[in-house]
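Consortium newsletter contribution from the modelling node. Members have asked for a concrete example of what our holo predictions look like. Here is one, prepared for the zinc ion complex that several groups have been discussing at recent meetings.
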Amino acid sequence: MWLQAPWLSALALLLPCSFGTPNQDRIFKYRSYRETHSFFEQLQEKYPNLVELWYAQDIFPEILPRKITWGTCEGEPCKTLIVRIANKRLLTNSTPEVFFSGALHGDERLGPATVTELASFLCEEYGVDTQVRRLVDFRATWIMPMTNAFGYAAHRREENSMDPNRDFPYLHTRPERCMQTQTARAVNELFRRHLFQFMITFHGGMRALTYEWGSRNHMTMPQRRSTEPPDETAFREVGQAIQAAAGKTLHRRWFYPLGRINDLVYPVEGGMEDWSYAAGWEKSPTPITVCKPNTYGGYAEERTKYRRDSISTLVYLAEMDNYKTAPDNSLGHRLEIWSPSATNGHIARNLRMCLKTIEMTRPEVVVLPPSMPSSAGDGATSLSVQIYGFGCHQMTARLVAVPSSVVPGCLVGEDGGDLEQEQFQQILQKSVKMDATEGHCRGLSLWNASTPPPRVLQGAVPTGEEVCVLIAAEFDQQWARQTRPDPLVTPRSHAARGRLEERYQVKANDGPMMIKARRTKLFAVGGPIRLEATSATTMTAKDTVDQPALAISEETTMATSDPHTSLGSSIWQQARLVPTTTFVNLHPRPEEPEDVTYAQDFFSIAAISFALSIAVGCAMLLRNRQEVAIKANVKDAQTRSELAEMVGKDPI
Ligand SMILES: [Zn+2]
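And here is the predicted structure:
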């Protein structure tokens, strides 16, 4: 049994501010069914732009056609709560999505406690931490805190004596024996409308972090070992990353043994895991069953017929503790999230796993400011860019220059996935390589004691024409590796195909959600620039303020009397720039106009020497940033209004 020494809590409270926000520390606790509902209602009230709540029985009328009372939860009709944490203003119909299930079995209560605190953490840290902000701005986190609402309220494994994790359309021989529960139908409807790249389903009763396969049809005989899923490399790599995020035991072993469900847990029929991984690509009606249940007024069999490639999630089953409901004093407290340790409570450990999973939902290159062209004084002009990989394990990145006529405004969208094929090909054909790098992605560093420095890409900028500087990157190409995949197909998951295939486009079964991905992803370094090859190098940069910017530009005019040049070590002096140089800030994201904290945090990442050299200009820069952000948000609202309307009509 895990016991928490009181002095550990006291000690943690004395940790320095850099470990988070001490004023937000609190001891974690379990919440009842009703307390969980009101917790989320309050969270939504406090963070209306980040939190959205729905009840499955209201928005998916097909799961309860006769609108009967299907269960009583703490004295009221049971409702299955669905939560989305995302920046509503930035959502599109291709925002990458991730899913967390709190408790498919109602008496396994660590999951609900974890995902409830996850939602709270994302909201509270949004305005404080740049990395958390990235998770909320450009990924959508879906949570069903009490997936089995009836079971959770009643402290029972099952829903009205039916086991939800035997109720999914996988390997059932009797079609009336699947999709019997409100729990499974609610999950099914959510998955019909969304394209989840990753998910964790939380359980309890043993300790293991597991992935596919988890059913008899994917076992070797007579050894009864799991066969290899086509996405084995992705499953294992991401599994190792979230295993590391969870941390170690006092015996210095990983807290979670990692392996396949069949090997570490046991095979089941009708499990959510196999269904959520394979419903979009394995054969139907076997193993993907077409269900015809009779419970609760029935459920149309069309609801278990799926569009090709629509449901292909990389799913992890976390068995969190030998106790289905671990002792209250084993949950730990909030500050532990920042400091992995064998003495961590359950919530911090599992919350870090969730954060790492959210990160992996979108592979991207993060470009750090400052980066601006600098002249060596001999006519050559080079650009230096600091980058790191986020949401990936391995990255190959090239710094390229492309004529801006091919990429008007240097706008490539989130990662180039939206571009028309012809334009994308032109960009690749006309790009001039300036520099390249490859290696490990840095990823989330919220709780890492030492963070690897960013990679530096540096290269000569072509002169005499207006160009866009872009990063062209590929991620996790090793995920194509297979040994003996069962069945014999290439990786099937959205996460792998979006990284590996030259072009990967897929639509959800219902509603507007889609994935538009390419193997080579593009990230804008800034707005268009034009460099003149003269003896006194002149540089101009186009103001991209009026563009609905991915790259928000910020201008700073260097005057001859600029105080920076008085600094002996100033890169400006070394570069001998002409006085009226305009440079483009490289922040690739629209920002909240009111959020000065973020801006400060953001700049702290940049080279300290540069930060000092522009100290005098900072006030002007921030004011300018706010103006730019306001314009960008207005523009953003306009360009996204159609989508918002579309998504709003059929939210999930
Ligand atoms: Zn369970």
